[in-house]
From TrEMBL:
UniProt-recorded name of the protein: ABC transporter
GO molecular function, one term: ATP hydrolysis activity
Entry keyword set: ATP-binding, Cell membrane, Membrane, Nucleotide-binding, Transmembrane, Transmembrane helix, Transport
Domain ABC transmembrane type-1: 41-319
Naturally occurring in which organism (per UniProt): Cellulomonas gelida
Cross-referenced Gene3D superfamilies: ABC transporter type 1, transmembrane domain, P-loop containing nucleotide triphosphate hydrolases
Nucleotide-binding among keywords: yes
Length: 594
């Protein structure tokens, strides 16, 4: 089932973006929230830097006036140098704090996202593409950093300089200020219009990068299949098509961004020309001194700089909102709840002798057809049960339902006599061990894999490996339990992977063990040992095996025969050979005999 699921996931169309609301600046602040103290310090430093910057034209003006009046300039040049150095140091500290704030916000966004992703309902993860989800954690959170570092906090600080410059210009010549400001406002209005488009395009870009991530992920995860099928060229072309798509959308963004730059430089030039022309006329008519005009022009620089920074920030925030919308799409999906509800007392007393009871259980994936159809059976504590049936009968789905990866659409599942809906998912899973059909090992060491659920000493790990006949894997490398198993456990054989998963499940000492026997790793060599192992496991707990070996099936206390989601027969091997045509057929054609 795992392979099927994987194929479905990578081939599924991209999730609809419109399904979620668009992010706002408040969402951006939500991530900065934890760093609020820093933002206060940054703003304070911004104000101090603005003061040192604003003092410079005033000092230059004073020096010019003294030169014009044939007076000595005295210490003015040294004061100017000191102010410049001071401004530089303050701005350096501010810069570091801005980066720190941004990194904090990125961390907060990533934490939220990762914590949420790992708690999404399994059905939700089935529907999405892994590569795209990974891109949201890496790429989309990065744009939050860009928005903050490319001047969001910095430009709020720049507002101080802008306001100070405007006040100084107002005092020098209100008419000149009016002209300069009018030109600047027109430019800002044009740029703001362009940035709306930028937000839309960059959302498209993040999406295209997400698709590229998922295509690459798909190709790398199935690299063996792709090579063996001689499909490297085709798969490369698939990924390259995504690269090209991202490039095209990137060009759209480039076009829009490119518009911003000439717009602001034209506005700056027009502004300076207007101030120079009008200012020259004001000097000629005796309304302004040359020193005042020089001061005014220096202040104009100080006005334009933060203004262009603010414009840049609007663009970066636009991009960030695109990324935040994609982050929000994931955060808005409800997490898997613990699913424990207080149910009305049914009147029936739970029978603790019954390890597992299914009462009219039905299930379907999404809006698909019924995969389990009114399943009813009871398994007594300590029994060894085999589930058999043709491929697609719903055997793996049945195990998924018991361990609450999915909830049935109707009916009741009782584990240890209690309705599972009355217990949290964690409580149910603590008592039930589950070994999937193609159980992938987790990238990491043997020890990481064994101690995933519960801590275990080295001796316990070794015993668990010995129990599942895996001690030779331990002897293979001098690293012992610290030997790496590779991505998805590629350094182990399929059979070894499943036995490692079994060892992990056994270490958690479950009262019920669900084992989805692998169809692909059946070999005569291990046959006796596997039978031995299953005998040993079933001595300690209730065992439900989705079985593909006749030897696993024949000794079972009960065999459940499933067909198209329904339980069509149950009994022992001998009983079923007499009573069930499907079982006879399965025993003859599908169950492997060594
Ligand atoms: N995650 C999923 N989403 C949608 N449909 C699914 C999903 N998993 C399984 N199915 C469908 O449910 C049906 C039952 O699948 P299931 O894996 O339970 O069968 P099975 O009896 O275990 O088969 P096999 O013996 O081949 O492993 C199949 O038609 C399958 O396509």
């Amino acid at each position: 089932m795992t392979a099927l699921q994987d194929d479905r996931r990578v081939d599924a169309p991209a999730e609809p973006v419109a399904a979620s609301r668009r992010a706002t600046v408040m969402d951006l602040f939500r991530f900065v929230g934890v760093q609020r103290g820093f933002v206060g310090v940054v703003l304070g430093l911004g104000a101090a830097t603005a003061l040192t910057t604003l003092a410079q034209p005033a000092l230059v003006g004073r020096a010019l006036e003294r030169v014009a009046a044939d007076e000595p300039v005295g210490r003015l040049p040294w004061v100017l140098v000191a102010v410049v150095i001071c401004g530089g140091v303050l701005s350096g500290i501010q810069h570091y704090l801005v980066q720190r704030t941004a990194e904090g916000a990125v961390r907060s966004a990533r934490r939220d996202l990762v914590t949420h992703l790992l708690r999404l309902p399994v059905a939700e993860i089935d529907r999405r593409r892994t590569g795209d989800l990974v891109a949201r954690v890496g790429n989309d959170t990065n744009v939050v950093r860009t928005a903050l570092t490319q001047g969001f906090v910095e430009s709020i600080a720049g507002v101080f300089t802008l306001l100070g410059a405007m006040i100084a210009m107002l005092l020098l010549d209100p008419m000149l200020l009016l002209v300069a400001f009018a030109v600047a406002l027109v430019a800002v209005a044009c740029v703001a219009a362009v940035t709306q488009q930028l937000e839309r395009s960059s959302h498209g870009l993040q999406r295209a990068v997400g698709e590229l991530g998922s295509a690459t992920d798909r190709a790398l995860r199935s690299v063996r299949t792709v090579r063996a099928a001689n499909a490297t060229e085709i798969e490369t072309a698939r990924v390259v098509r995504r690269v090209d798509k991202a490039w095209k959308v990137g060009l759209d963004v480039a076009w829009v961004t490119a518009l911003v730059s000439p717009l602001s430089s034209i506005a700056t030039q027009v502004c300076f020309l207007a101030v120079l022309g009008l200012g020259g006329w004001r000097v000629a008519t005796g309304n302004l001194t040359v020193a005042e005009l020089v001061q005014f022009i220096l202040y104009l620089f100080l006005l334009i700089m933060p203004l262009s920074r603010i414009v840049g920030t609007v663009g970066a925030v636009g991009e960030a909102l695109g990324g935040l919308t994609r982050i929000g799409e994931v955060l808005d999906v409800p997490q898997e709840d613990e699913g424990a509800t207080r149910l009305a007392f049914s009147g029936a007393r739970p029978n603790p002798e019954l390890a597992l009871v299914l009462d009219n259980v039905s299930f379907r994936y999404d809006d698909g057809p019924a995969v389990l159809d009114r399943l009813t059976f009871a398994i007594r504590r300590g029994q060894r049960v085999a589930v058999v049936g043709p491929s697609g009968a719903g055997k793996s789905t049945l195990l998924n339902i018991i361990v609450r990866l999915y909830d049935p659409v109707a009916g009741i599942v009782r584990v240890d006599g209690q309705d599972v809906r009355e217990r949290t998912r964690s409580q149910v899973r603590a008592g039930v061990g589950y070994v999937e059909q193609d159980a992938p090992a987790l990238a990491g060491t043997l020890r990481d894999n064994l101690t995933l659920a519960v801590p275990a000493s080295d001796d316990e790990c070794r015993t668990a490996l010995a129990d599942v006949n895996l001690l030779d894997v331990l002897d293979r490398s001098p690293a012992g339990l610290d030997a790496e198993v590779g991505e998805g456990g590629v350094m182990l054989s399929g059979g070894e992977r499943q036995r490692l998963a079994l060892a992990r499940a056994l270490l958690a000492r479950p009262t019920t063990l669900l084992l989805d026997e692998s169809t692909s790793h059946l070999d005569g060599l291990n046959e006796a040992r596997v039978r031995d192992l299953i005998d040993r496991v079933s001595a300690g707990c209730t065992l439900v095996v989705v079985a593909h070996r006749l030897s696993t099936v024949v000794d079972s206390d009960v065999i459940l025969v499933m067909d198209r989601g329904r339980l069509v027969a149950q009994g022992t091997h001998e009983e079923l050979l007499r009573t069930s045509m499907l079982y006879r057929q399965l025993a003859r054609t599908q169950l492997v005999e060594h």
